[in-house]
Amino acid sequence: MKAYDPHSPLISLHIPKTGGTSLRHTLGEWFPEGRLFTHYFANGQLPARHHLTGNVCVHGHFNAARGFGCTQYYPDIGQFITFLREPFERFLSTWFFRSALRRTGIFTAGSETDTDFKTYLFDCAELMAQNRYLHTFLHQFPDTAHYSESIGLMDRKFVFVGIMERYPDSLNALGTLLGKTPIHGGAPEPVRTHRGLRRLARLLRKEFRS
């Protein structure tokens, strides 16, 4: 990975369901006094574009396939951080999130039909096979690439990649890299999963990977 330049802007890619909300609070402590900008939809509007100079950080959801990618907004920024998560667990967490929204009458794209986890999982697999899955982490990276090229992309563009399953250790390592005070907190609060669904998820994991 490339060396961190503390005098240049940094982009933090919040890949959904990877502890990005907790990370945003920490970044706010590390980049105080208006030096942390966020990149999220607000009132249904695309994220605002900020003028970035010096030691600042932008954190949020980026997605080139949906019109708000980091290269589309900030083509001159060359250093990134992100956290990744075991893919199956991210799918499971995403489905719980979509289901919770659906119960309150809020429907995200496709959530009208993914009323059970298996349907959602295999719908995503079909979209991936057709190269039409808009939520792959690659669309959230600075340059959309094939999965086989993602390691090289991280070497060229990223100064740090954390692991959700080792969140406290990764967060402290990130703080050390950025020259910030380490945060000795725990991992983000996990989603509570019904025991029966967790058993189903284990079976589907085997089927999904076969």
Oligomeric form: single chain
Structural class: alpha/beta
Can you write the helix and strand succession as a string?
A: EHEEHEHHHEHH
Helix content: 25-40%
Tell the overall outline.
Answer: globular
Largest sheet: 5 strands, parallel
Fraction of residues in β-strands = 5-15%
Task: Give the neighbour order of strands across the main sheet.
Answer: 2-3-1-4-5
Number of helices: 7
Extract low-pLDDT stretches: 189-193
Rg measurement, Å: 18 Å
The counted number of beta strands is 5
Separation, N- and C-terminal Cα atoms: 32 Å
Query: Mean pLDDT, as a whole number?
Result: 81
What key attributes describe this structure?
globular, 210 residues, alpha/beta, 7 helices, 5-stranded parallel sheet
Characterise this structure.
About 2% of the residues have low confidence. The protein is built from 7 helices and 5 strands. The chain is globular. The longest helix has 17 residues. It has a 5-stranded parallel sheet. By secondary structure, the protein is of the alpha/beta class.
